[in-house]
Amino acid sequence: METLQQMGAGFGVAFTPENLLFVFIGVLAGTVIGILPGLGPMSAIALMIPIAFGMDPTTAIIMLAGVYYGAIFGGSTSSILLNAPGVAGTVATSFDGYPMARKGAAGKALAIAAIASFTGGTIGVVLLMLIAPALSSFAVSFGPADYFALMVLGLTAVVTLGGRNITKGLIAAVVGVMVSLVGIDSQTATLRFTFGMPELYEGVKFLIVALGLFALAEVFSMLARRGAGGADGAMTSLRLNRRDLGRIAGPTGRGSILGFFTGVLPGAGATVASFLSYSMEKRIAKDGDTFGSGNPKGVAAPEAGNNAAAVGSFVPMLTLGVPGSGTTAILLGALLVLGVTPGPMMLSDRPEMFWGLVASMYVGNIVLLVLNLPLIPLFAKVLKTPRAVLIPLVVVFCVVGVYGLSFSVFDLWLLLGFGVVGYLMRQNGFPAAPMILGLILGSMMERSMRQALQISYGDWTTFVTSPYSAALLGLTAIVLVWPLVKRLRSGPKAPAAGASPDGAQKEEDTASTP
Amino acid sequence: MKPFTFSNRVLGAAVGVLAVVYLYLAFTLEEFTAVSVPVQPATLPKWLGAVLLVLAAVLFFQKQEDTGEQAGSDGDGDEASKTGGGAPARPAAARPALGRLADPRHELALFAASIGLYIALLEPLGFLISTTAYIAATTWYLGYRRHWANALVAVGVSAVLYFAMSDFLRVALPTGPLPF
């Protein structure tokens, strides 16, 4: 009851004309910035912080939160239309979103993304309101060993999601972790794998690898296909019929809930949430074998997941003062500058701010839907650009994104290198997603591993004596071994299945849905 | 024919070489002795190298499978057109082919080299000149015939990007010989 009252007061805050205006501005700015490949929520919020400085802190955080989910939605737009996810959180959206766009269903894919984002965000806000306190106390009990196990599970889940060849997926993941270790070791200041090049001391930036492996590699294969098989720009309508809505309802709902809980865990933000909900849907869907070739469920699940996780990551930041993701870390920094210290006291000291923010998330989600659905045809025009013009433009956008980040020509050479590697990888059936995730999680994994072992005085059994960690690692083992068991159990058919990957894939996926 | 597609043997061997080099480098990393730490800087790299070596061996002995052009990547490409169903395959003549060389491998190498040239000239010539030249040249080379539109796009995109970045976002792109 008390919660409802406070929520009412929160809506009172959110519905002042000033705050409404700034939610709108924030969401619009976030969407526009997020669409540009290479610019994600972090850069979007960072760019908007100077504008927020003169504002009332409540209004400022309401606007910045709007920028956050606007940018996530904008990122999914470029994932779907260009296969150029500038944001890690929308990589999973491109798996099915881009094939849908290439089949001429770009409008539908974007509409599904908008609706799933809206639903994910809304469900996330409801959960945030209802169970934030209980959840944060659970997340606090997660130790470093548990985080390590969680990240290992996330990585393995993505590999099995890559499908066809688990060996190649694992190789990609391991190489991704290797790339993440390049640079100055954070604990001991040892230089690792820098080959004496100062440019590598700070490590390889995520953006360079992501743009190289996805956008640039895509341009290479566009050229190798000689422009054939590309999207022919036939924009289908945005309208979803009842059957479509029925198909995506389940994935959206499950993705929202899974995404929210993943987002609450610090470190495992929108990215892990989107990959997890994607792989979960792929496993449980009856038509799981069509995931990756333009299945609407494969768009709905990660979109609901990443938006719910974006909301979820506010839980630890607002209630504990510990940011749950890089993006909320930037938000936290902005709040501190504005003179607000989030933490356990915020709910009692500044209730108008906490509940005003929660209420404005509802409003922001509605603005997102209202803003984006009408603008989708405009976004989709990108697809009508002739290939000969599009190819150099994508290259230029990649170059600007990387150069604007680091002002380093060395990073541009790295970008070209990863583009070539990415092209060779896709020609030979190596999935790019595990490599990206390995890169993102790699350094975090090492940090958790070190903390865990530091606490246990170097005792490696800490990873199996903690109940959460043991359960998560057990789950990892099952995820890894399951396809093998399936293949063995199918007995004499096994060689045939091995010979035709399509068959094997289908068998694995349908078999896991009883 | 799919350019740059190799057998599992070749791939396994290549990954194996990478793993061995990586392991060698990992074992040459200095031990950290100032304070006792349970995890040395080389601990995780050694594990990673070993795992990669095992995976390379597994791949080496794996039966050859059909790696569709984008088999493992994101499942787009070939699959999309295969399962497209509704979208009929278009006759090749309906779409102007990109590029000019007969061998796609040469085409790709040339394309990579052109990006390299663009990167190399970015700072000496400045963003505006190099980007305009790159877009115009690539678009022309790839076979786009409306030269006026091409010129307009090349100049327009470079200028809009440049001024948006430098004036609005305050990101200083290289100016080169131009005064602004």
UniProtKB/TrEMBL annotation, chain A:
Transmembrane segments: 20-39, 51-74, 110-132, 138-159, 166-184, 204-224, 320-341, 353-376, 388-416, 428-445, 465-485
Alphabetized UniProt keyword annotations: Membrane, Transmembrane, Transmembrane helix
Top-level taxonomic group: Bacteria
Signal peptide residues on this chain, from the entry's feature table: none
DUF112 domain mapped to chain residues: 20-437
InterPro entries in UniProt: DUF112_TM
Comp. bias intervals (Low complexity): 491-503
Span list, region Disordered: 491-514
Residue ranges with Basic and acidic residues bias: 504-514
Name this polypeptide is given: Tripartite tricarboxylate transporter permease
The species this protein was found in: Nocardiopsis endophytica
TrEMBL record, chain B:
UniProt organism field: Nocardiopsis endophytica
Ranges of residues in domain DUF1468: 11-174
One matching Pfam family: TctB
UniProt keyword Transmembrane helix present: yes
Keywords of the record: Membrane, Transmembrane, Transmembrane helix
Lineage: Bacteria, Bacillati, Actinomycetota, Actinomycetes, Streptosporangiales
Region Disordered, residue ranges: 67-92
UniProt protein name: Tripartite tricarboxylate transporter TctB family protein
InterPro entries, alphabetized: DUF1468
Bilayer-spanning residue ranges: 44-61, 108-136, 148-165
